[in-house]
Specification:
Structural class: alpha+beta
Number of helices: 15
Helix content: 40-55%
Number of strands: 7
Mean pLDDT: 84
CATH topology of the largest domain: Hypothetical protein af1432
CATH class of the largest domain: Mainly Alpha
Low-confidence stretches: 132-143, 256-265
Largest sheet: 5 strands, antiparallel
Strand content: 5-15%
Distance between the termini: 60 Å
CATH superfamily of the largest domain: Hypothetical protein af1432
Radius of gyration: 23 Å
Strand order of the largest sheet: 3-2-1-4-5
Length: 378
């Protein structure tokens, strides 16, 4: 079918029914009449779209959904809803093949609209997966797969570089890194082994963001939090210092040896980070609150921005603060860290309940000294 007005109406309607079916199943269950209507409407539209072609593929690139080289956000307002659901499930492409059945579509809706641990499976006429692009590939923002720590750090670095160039934060790429971090922790629970090693000064912002996300997600998993929440916590760790994008490079390089006037400049970065995240309309709640609060003391008594009387930071803000400190202590300053592991453990013991959350400090000690007794965040 030629990609004229009729094709646009059909593809736009198909995306709308995909979003409506998944949303209805999530809210009311697969037996709701609107879910059945979505199956019927989508089946009809796909039948017409696939009349002259063997398959139809939707591809998620960054925060945009494409069919071929056509961005679907310009065709239907429902594309954003579908993008969010695909990103939550780690799905980057969906291919519908000629002969797709109503039963397959119904099962697809159930998985796409299911709980946080529900995975989306391929079927004979519906194939799902991730986009894998060669390192040198060009295209519409194509993303590499992220099987290794190095791959994740490189994508974080590219995301930060683009933010510095044009002020654009690629949330979809950071969400992909957050998913990969949690998947890596599920394969190997040794949290520090999943952290990136010091590379060089210029790479420290990306390395630090990755490691804070990994440590925070690792502690969250130890505390028994569900997978989807761990992903959102990892995302919060990735963007916790995003407000430092405009801070001079020397401040990163002299992190603990700054003149007071430059410390005060750097401490503006929580407010700057919040302003950046607020420009991203799909930004979840946790990164918004943690980017602002991660430099407050655990009880809200001091720190930056100026504390509100009686306000205690969010538990995830307190978690990010501990992960932030742990990464600097262990991996900072040219990979030497700031202290031996024993001295680091002692520092966290001294800081617990004073400036940092005591429960999360116990978690870090459990990671640093695995033979310690059972951990609970308290």
């Amino acid at each position: 079918m030629n990609r004229g007005p009729e094709w646009e109406a059909l593809i736009g309607g198909a995306v709308a029914e995909l979003a409506a079916g998944a949303t209805t199943v999530a809210l009311y269950g697969a037996s709701h009449p609107r879910a059945e209507q979505a199956v019927g409407e989508l089946s009809g539209r796909l039948g017409r779209l696939l009349r002259d072609e063997p398959e139809l593929t939707l591809v998620l690139l960054g925060d945009d959904l494409f069919c071929g080289d056509v961005p679907l956000a310009g065709i239907t307002r429902h594309a954003e809803n579908l993008v969010r659901r695909l990103q939550r499930r780690g799905v980057e492409h969906v291919t519908f093949r000629s002969g797709v059945t109503g039963s397959e579509l119904r099962e697809f809706f159930i998985e796409l609209g299911g709980g946080p641990d529900t995975s989306v499976q391929s079927r004979p006429h519906i194939q799902v997966g991730v986009v894998e692009v060669d390192e040198g590939a060009d295209g519409l923002g194509g993303r590499r797969s992220l099987p290794t720590v190095t791959d994740r750090v490189e994508l974080v670095g590219e995301t930060f570089a683009q933010l510095g160039r044009d002020g654009t934060l690629q949330l979809g790429d950071l969400e992909a890194v957050a998913r990969a971090i949690v998947q890596g922790l599920e394969r190997d629970g040794d949290v520090f082994a999943q952290c990136a090693a010091w590379d060089e000064e210029a790479e420290w912002p990306a390395v630090h963001a990755h490691n804070v996300a990994t440590l925070a997600a690792g502690l969250a998993r130890m505390a028994g939090l569900e997978t989807e929440l761990c992903r959102e916590i990892a995302l919060a760790g990735l963007v916790h210092d995003v407000g430092r994008a405009g801070v001079p490079r020397r401040i990163f390089e002299l992190e603990l040896e700054l003149p007071m006037r430059e410390v005060e400049l750097d401490l503006d970065h929580p407010q700057a980070g919040l302003a950046i995240l607020l420009d991203s309309p799909r930004m979840p709640y946790l990164p918004l609150i943690t980017v602002l609060e991660h430099h407050l003391a655990h009880d809200g008594s001091r720190g930056t921005p100026k504390p509100l009387i009686g306000h205690r930071p969010h538990p995830v803000s307190r978690l990010i603060a501990v992960a932030d400190a742990a990464d600097v202590m262990v991996h900072g300053r040219g990979g030497r860290g700031l202290a031996t592991r024993e001295a680091t453990v002692a520092w966290f013991e001294e800081s617990a309940g004073r400036t940092l959350d005591a429960g999360w400090c116990r978690g870090i000690r459990q990671l640093l000294v695995p033979e310690q007794s059972d951990y609970s965040p308290g």
